[in-house]
UniProtKB/TrEMBL annotation:
The gene is rpsB. One of its GO terms (cellular component) is cytosolic small ribosomal subunit. This is Small ribosomal subunit protein uS2. GO terms for molecular function: structural constituent of ribosome. Pfam families: Ribosomal_S2 (PF00318). HAMAP family: Ribosomal_uS2_B. PROSITE patterns: RIBOSOMAL_S2_1, RIBOSOMAL_S2_2. InterPro entries: Ribosomal_uS2 (IPR001865), Ribosomal_uS2_bac/mit/plastid (IPR005706), Ribosomal_uS2_CS (IPR018130), Ribosomal_uS2_flav_dom_sf (IPR023591). It comes from Bradyrhizobium vignae. Belongs to the universal ribosomal protein uS2 family. Keywords: Ribonucleoprotein, Ribosomal protein.
């Protein structure tokens, strides 16, 4: 793969060039303003194109080195686009209210994530039946509240290596925290915003739905390009070899579990299981797990062994319970 291609025409059609009313401008954005039309500032796309390309290159390079990208967009029109883009490229996102200290107080945030995982386990297992209806409702509400704020970062496992921000005015706390921790920031900066402190400034409209969708799509594709480069750098091109490469087969699993060489028909969406992200789903696939019924048949010890191999042993029993439920629904 290569960095995603885009043209100035695409930016024009998405409305990237429309700024805010002239009286609402931030003078620090003057170098990026082409002119004024009907009292609306017009962004200079001749500068936006190379600066957006530079930001996409930074995203791709960060992911290629094994880094994490955090998408931040809490305004209404950005919420769905940010979440979809982050999930598509196996990265992380915050699309509800930014909790103060999400980066600078990661220890406390980690405790909240641990609580969210515990609630997921309780509510998805038979343990929930030991609670009264009112208690279950209270736990579900607490779980939903935590999931809105932390659901997109619960599998991040640490601080991000770069954050991508849609609206620098609305996400000013996130940007300040990133600056304090020296985390690079790539951001869409409108004519009413301050570009100071932004590592990769991308001048453009941060309100139009089509523009936001375009930004998110390009950044997601840049991250996927980084993943592709990382995989390519980790080995040789087997397809170009004149002689077949001797491949060392993995030793049989001590648990007795035998995975499949590939999915039987259409693979199931394993991301429906509690706590399973795109990255965890790939680890399942590497172990030969593609279907709910494979997990539904596991005993406790085998499930725990597989959980340890993918890095989430505490979720093993919850996966089995959820897989059984999903298998029953399919039947």
């Amino acid at each position: 793969m290569a960095l995603p291609d885009f043209t100035m025409r695409q930016l024009l059609e998405a409305g990237v060039h429309f700024g805010h009313q002239a009286h609402r401008w931030n003078p620090k954005m003057a170098p990026f303003i082409f002119g004024t039309r009907n009292n609306i500032h017009i962004v200079d796309l001749a500068q936006t194109v190379p600066m957006l390309h530079q930001a996409l290159q930074a995203v791709s390079d960060t992911v290629a080195k094994g880094g994490r990208i955090l998408f931040v967009g809490t305004k209404r029109q950005a919420q769905d686009g940010v979440a979809d883009a982050a999930k598509r490229c196996a990265q992380y996102f915050v699309n509800s209210r930014w909790l103060g200290g999400t980066l600078t107080n990661w220890k406390t945030i980690s405790a909240s994530i641990k609580r969210l995982r515990h609630l997921d386990d309780v509510l998805s297992s038979g343990e929930a039946n030991s609670y009264t209806k009112k208690e279950r409702l209270t736990l579900q509400r607490e779980r939903d509240k935590l999931d809105r704020s932390l659901g997109g970062i619960k599998d991040m496992g640490g601080l991000p290596d770069l954050i991508f921000v849609i609206d620098t005015n609305k996400e000013d706390i996130a940007i300040q925290e990133a600056q304090r921790l020296n985390i690079p920031v790539a951001a869409i900066v409108d004519t009413n915003s301050d570009p100071k402190g932004i590592t990769y400034v991308v001048p453009g409209n941060d309100d139009a739905g089509r523009a936001i969708s375009l930004y998110c799509d390009l950044v997601a594709r840049a991250a996927i390009d980084g993943i592709s480069r990382a995989q390519g750098d980790s080995g040789i091109d087997v397809g170009a070899s004149a002689e077949p490469v001797a491949e060392e087969l993995p030793a049989p699993s001590s648990s007795g579990f035998q995975g499949l060489a590939g999915p039987r028909g259409t693979a199931d969406d394993l991301k429906k299981l509690p706590g399973v992200s795109g990255a965890i789903e790939k680890k399942f696939n590497d172990l030969g797990i593609f279907h709910y019924w494979q997990l539904a048949e596991l005993d406790h010890d085998t499930a725990l062994t597989i959980g340890e191999e993918v890095g989430l042993p505490s979720r093993a029993d919850a996966w089995v319970a959820k897989a059984k439920a999903l298998t029953a629904e399919a039947e």
